[in-house]
Amino acid sequence: MAYINKTTKTQRKIQEALLELMKTKKFEVITVSDITSLIDINRSTFYRHYLDKYNVLEKIEDNILIEITDFHNKFINNLSNKNIDITFEISDYINVDNNFFNIFEKHLSSMHILMGENGSITFQNKLKNTMLNVFKRTFSLASINLNKIEKDLLFNFQSASFISIINYWTEHPELTVKELFSFYNRIISNGIVNFVKDNMN
């Protein structure tokens, strides 16, 4: 157990070092030596945990995206037991204590770097695909009379608007989950939800 804890601690230190370096350097120019020097470990220790700097970045990205996916899987499982009809309201299924903003809040500082000037295009693409899948699965629980193109536009609109809010939040971390959820809920309830309702069976 002690060895596992030490391993996890070292892996976390390496990930934190890479993120720290990305505050001032583009990922492409960062070297393994930069990482090891920052946290005073030797290269053999680094390679005992990671293949290269790309592997470190991938683990950082995947840790965030897996948590998002796990949260959504639980959300979908809960929703699958409920009947979603044209009378539905967002507040019937989502509240300030149970929404995506709680997940993103834990990763704001990391995401500020990953989505920033020296950030990771791969993460931004992965996040886009993850959120597209989230909204596709969520809306699939309702019977919506739209053709494929209209559905694609709907999912892309929802995903892009949500990611834009998250990106704004990373630059304004003083905002609370309650404030973000309240704003997002008002926008969605008065806009896209009515659009979906108008096209439900």
TrEMBL record:
Family matches, as Pfam families: TetR_C_8
Record has Isomerase as a keyword: no
Keyword presence, Hydrolase: no
UniProt keyword list: DNA-binding
HTH tetR-type domain mapped to chain residues: 8-68
Residues in the DNA-binding region annotation: 31-50
Signal sequence interval, chain numbering: none
PANTHER family from the UniProt entry: ACREF/ENVCD OPERON REPRESSOR-RELATED, TETR-FAMILY TRANSCRIPTIONAL REGULATOR
Protein name (record): HTH tetR-type domain-containing protein
Source organism phylogeny: Bacteria, Bacillati, Bacillota, Bacilli, Bacillales
